[in-house]
Structure formats: C-alpha cells, structure tokens
Write a structure and sequence with these properties.
By secondary structure, the chain is α+β, with helices and mostly antiparallel strands. Helices cover 30% and strands 31% of the residues. A hairpin with a 4-residue loop joins strand 10 and strand 11.
Length: 255
C-alpha cells in the first residue's frame, strides 16, 4: 500500500534516494541533506498531489549522480535540487599524495576564519548553472578520452597577499583551451584568460606575511610531479563550495 504524505513536511531540506531491491521493487527514502530550489516551495503549495509535486520537481530541477558499488553489481541514484542561482566552479582533481601535500599547507598557512575550502586547482571560476547539463556532457566526453595529465610543480610564488605553488603542463593548457572554445559564449572575462595553473596555500594576509612565507617555502622547495586525474564540479555558495560531481579521466588520449 502506498501512503501519500505532504512533501512540505520534509522542508527546508529534501534528499530523495531510490533504487531497486532484490525483489525488483522500487524503494524511496527521504532525508535532510540537500536544500531545494526556492521555486519548489511555491510549486508544492499550488499542487494537490505530493507525488505529482515530487515528479514535477525531479523533472525540472534534478541533479542525478550515479554511484556504483565496488564490484559494479549495484547502482544507486541520488537526486538533489540545484539552486540555479549558484555558479559552477570547475577544478582539476589531483592525485591523493599531491592533494594532501597542498592541503596540509593550506590548513597551516591560510587564515582559519577565511578558509572555507580545501586545496584546489581552478580551471573555471564561474560557469552558469543553467548550462549544467551541457557542462556535464562536455566533461564526461572529455574524461572518457583523456588519460591522467602529468603536472610539473615548478615554484612557490607570492600573490601579494598570499602564496601559491605554480604548475606547468602543456596538456592541461590544451585541455583548458579546448573547453574555452566549447563554452566561449558563457565565459566571464576572467575565464576567457589564459590559464595560470596554481594551488593557493595562503591568501588574505598582510603583504609582509606573504613575502616571508614565500621565501621560507621557496628555500625548502624542489620541483616535483603531480597528476591531474579528473574533473571536480562545484556549486559556489557565496564562500564555501558544494561538490556536485567528480569525473575521472579513463581514456588513452594524451594532449
């Protein structure tokens, strides 16, 4: 027996998860994780059926993420509302060893009251969320073709009020240029510029503090190699970012 429940009881946060059990019966669970689009409340108030409200919302505002089990025998689908006012940030996912190296330094040197993020290498700062399906499609196609990208970490640079590690990769520059060409009509002035690959470990401090840290880290520094292993897609939340998707490079093409 199916019992319809007023979906507004689950606000202000709704997370819907469904899958298929061993008997082939669809199962649904709702818990408090994802903040829905603000228009959903209005639509829900206007509709008489909680089921129809849910279906309408899924069709219009859905984000679907497929999660496979370790042996590939089970798949779950999680649907969360995306706020269409949140810009998309695209970063390059780094191998775990390199990520931990940069992130540990960020935790040490970034002012804690302003440190909303983990270490990251930004590819695009502001992609319009209304084009999320097209962005996702382009990234998934690219990831299926690309093999992991070698990156050379070359120096520690001052940013005036912060410090960053600079990275070099011809393959990454070519990838970024290719994505710029695909998304040219949507790009901000910042995202139309040539990519400067870097990972920030300190920012928003006094210039003399940044200069001192840069000198300290550069004295201890020697070049090393990192690897770009995929894309990370984020929603910008006015400070913090929310991870929407990770897309691994699984192809054989090298740029």
């Amino acid at each position: 027996m199916f019992v319809a429940t007023n979906i507004l009881d689950f606000f202000p946060f709704v997370h819907l998860k469904f899958g298929f059990g061993c008997a082939g019966i669809a199962t649904f669970t709702i818990n408090q994780e994802c903040q829905p689009h603000t228009k959903f409340k209005t639509k829900a108030a206007e509709a008489g059926s909680a089921v129809q409200v849910m279906l309408n919302w899924i069709n219009k505002y859905k984000r679907i993420e497929q999660v496979g089990s370790a042996n590939g025998t089970r798949k779950d689908y999680r649907l969360c509302a995306m706020n269409h006012e949140d810009p998309i940030v695209l970063t390059l996912q780094l191998d775990e060893v390199s990520f931990q190296y940069f992130n540990n330094q960020r935790q040490l040197y970034f002012p804690p009251e302003r440190n909303f993020l983990k270490a990251h290498l930004t590819l695009f700062h502001h992609l319009p969320s209304e084009h999320f399906p097209q962005v996702q499609q382009v990234l998934e196609q690219a990831a299926q073709e690309l093999q992991p990208l070698p990156l050379k970490v070359t120096a520690v640079k001052s940013m005036g009020k912060g410090v960053a590690y600079t990275l070099e990769s011809h393959a990454l520059q070519q990838l970024h240029l290719r994505l710029q060409q695909r998304w040219q009509p949507w790009l901000t002035a910042q995202d139309k510029q040539k990519l400067w690959p870097h990972v920030t470990v300190q920012n928003k401090v006094l210039p003399q503090q940044a200069k001192a840290l840069q000198a300290q880290l550069q004295e201890q520094f020697s070049t090393f190699t990192a690897t770009g292993i995929g894309f990370q897609v984020w929603a910008y939340k006015g400070g913090p970012w929310e991870l929407l998707q990770e897309i691994s490079f699984i192809g054989v093409e090298s740029l």
